[in-house]
Amino acid sequence: MEILLADSLGFCMGVKRAVDLAYLARERSGGLPIVTLGPLIHNTQETERLAGDGISAVDPAQPPDSGMVLIRAHGVAPQAYEELRARGLKVFDGTCPYVHYSQRKALELKREGYEVVIVGDRNHPEIRGILGYIDDGAFVVKNEEEARLLPVLERVGVIAQTTLSPEKYAAVCDVLRDRAPEVKVCETICDATEENQAAVRDLAGAVDLVFVIGGRHSANSNKLVDAARSAGARAMLIETPEEIDPADLERVGRVGVSAGASTPDWMIARVVAELHEIAQRKDRANAEYTE
Ligand code: SF4
User: Fold this and answer.
1) CATH no. for 24-95
2) What is the side-by-side strand order in the sheet with 55-58?
3) Which of 65-69, 104-108, 110-114, 222-226 is predicted least confidently?
4) CATH 3.40.1010.20: does it fit domain 2-10+192-290?
5) Catalytic-labelled residue, pool 46, 115, 126, 274
6) Ligand 1 atom closest to Cα of residue 12
């Protein structure tokens, strides 16, 4: 049985960078614990590993009084940095460079006199952080219907939540073009999600079964399963290698592996190692049968 990995899988660049930075902060902390404002990653096994290594999450509304704080990939409002430093905390900034770009774009649009429209979820930490850069001076809409409810505008500058689908962004921008004489659209969508999806679709065409590693409730992992299925493959979502049932691999010549954006490399490696073991057992059984 051959085991193929998707060309792009697992952590996106921004999350990987934030996790690496957490370990760097720990190295420099002289033994002090590191806290993140909210979980660094939505993956139970990775959160437990981080906590075991002294990197734990706290409620963003209740930062500690001392020690080191890591800002997550979603970023925060500039006021949050000031408050943390005013408490005497040492701050490491794990904001994803793509999110930094969106924050700068929002500020730039505001300074150029545009009315800023952000397309995304107003309760998402990334959007709350961006709003902090422009003193909450933006309209936030999550879809075309909400865009249609905006007042009549003159000069509109639009930015998107980094994980928005390009199709949805285009549709909302079309609505805005009907409502304002000038619309400046900023390309702030990150292609990390789309890269994993395109890679699992390619993989699906080359294998009999795809295992997607990810949390049961992870939207992007479930979308990878759907993408593999719509490309014609049998696909299953698993969280750990213990969930692999060898019976599912009985008539499988090639198995593919993909992973959601919250799945750490070490978990991917454990799944691949388990598949190699199953493959070797299958080979041994076949050899015995033919003897
Ligand atoms: S913007 Fe893209 S690369 Fe950055 S954290 Fe979000 S999904 Fe990851």
Assistant:
1) 3.40.50.11270
2) 55-58, 34-37, 68-71, 90-93
3) 65-69
4) yes
5) 126
6) 8
